[in-house]
Amino acid sequence: MEHVIEFFEKGGFIIYPLLLCSIVGLAIVIEKAVALRRKKVIIPEVVNVLDNIKCSADIGLALSICEKHKGPFANIIRVGLESRELPKEEIKETLVDQGRQEVRQLERGLVVLETVAGIAPLLGLLGTVIGILKVFNVISSMGVGQATAMAGGISEALITTIVGLSIGIPAVVGHNFFTDKAEGLVLEIEKYSSLLVKKVTSFKNDDNR
Question: pLDDT averaged over consecutive 10-residue blocks of the chain (209 residues)?
């Protein structure tokens, strides 16, 4: 533990914003890993009740199930069911509008994770430049023979680069992974939304006969 503390102390003041980036990045990764689980978003009970809607009489049960569950998928299906009396195009428009709002919830935090991925290596580079500048200051004042005096600047340059890349690379991987996962879930929600539109419009046609 002492070696770890000593390692970070040698990184200079830039190490503190880097540590903040690592904490923020890790918190977002954990939150998205929990929030974007398929069963948490595409709720099985809602899928089941949607698949089992056979006629207008089943809509009441479907609405109660959607109201019982929170989340983007349940909210979109609920809005679609509540808009069932509207013309087909208006139902689609209502679902699209609701979908835009709900997608923001799925993607929440990903912009911050992308920022961490971009800023961490840059902070590491800044620390590197500061460390090299210290080395040049030592050389200009004491000459090239003061290896011990130069070592502090070199350590700072290398440590901040290592830490910056160690934060930035996993953050990029995490951002790309969770963005792809969120997009996959959005496509699945769209699939069920289209199914819902087909069902409610077919019920209206049956009722009008």
Answer: 60 83 94 91 88 80 85 88 85 87 88 94 87 72 58 70 91 95 91 86 61
Output the pTM of the full model.
Answer: 0.80
Cα 113 to Cα 22: distance, rounded to the nearest angstrom: 10
CB atoms within 10 A of CB 118: 13
Kindly give, in sequence order, each residue whose CB lies less than 8 Å from that of residue 46, ignoring residues fewer than 6 positions away. Answer: 65, 66, 69, 73, 74, 77
Measured between alpha carbons, how far is 117 from 154 in angstroms, rounded to an integer? 24
CA 157 to each of CA 81, 163, 168, 194: distance values in angstroms, whole numbers, following the listed order: 60, 10, 17, 55
Residue 121: alpha-carbon gap to chain centroid = 19
Domains of the chain, by residue range, sit at 12-201
Report yes or no: 53 and 59 within 8 Å, Cβ to Cβ. Answer: yes
170 Cβ contact partners less than 8 Å away, ≥ 6 residues apart: 25, 29
Q: Which of 93, 64, 94 is nearest to 79 (CA)?
A: 94
